[in-house]
């Protein structure tokens, strides 16, 4: 929420002026490390554990906070989630579904488990260097 607020301010937009508008929120969100860690260490899980850690509701929470009435979309396409969120925001603007779109990306890697599994499966670059769209690329 804080970074979304700053993004609007940096764009010269007063966040309060958008309340009730058809502004849209598009969030690329991947990984569930935070939720897994919360479940592992929760002594008494409650309602807020699931609603506060659900990737599906991230865009709606931002939209609700600002009072936006446009599309609220959370998308998980793994490493391309942020790019897909920007793409969906642009498409929504072009289609006239919203007059302003807030696109965001978040991925908290808090545990090595997923990265270790991807490495074992050969899905990560063996030399640690990203070579996207390069014939020398190794991994997924």
Q: What's the SSE blueprint?
A:
Blueprint: H1 2-10, E1 24-30, H2 33-41, H3 47-53, H4 58-66, E2 72-75, H5 81-95, E3 101-107, H6 113-120
Parallel strand pairs: 1-2, 1-3
What is the helix tally?
6
Amount of beta strand: 5-15%
Distance between the termini: 31 Å
Strand order, main sheet: write it out.
Answer: 2-1-3
Taking the sheet with the most strands, its summary is: 3 strands, parallel
What is the mean predicted local confidence, pLDDT? Answer: 88
Kindly report the oligomeric state of this protein.
single chain
Which runs of at least 5 residues are low in confidence (pLDDT < 50)? Answer: none
Which geometry do the CA atoms define?
Answer: flat
Helix content: 40-55%
Which class of secondary structure composition applies to the elements? alpha/beta
Number of strands: 3
H and E string = HEHHHEHEH
CA radius of gyration is 18 Å
Describe the protein's architecture and organization.
The two termini are 31 Å apart. The chain has 140 residues and is an alpha/beta fold. It is flat and about 50 Å long. It has a three-stranded parallel sheet with strand order 2-1-3, sandwiched between helices. The chain has six helices and three strands; from the N terminus they run αβαααβαβα. Helix content is 41%, strand content 13%. The longest helix has 15 residues, at 81-95.
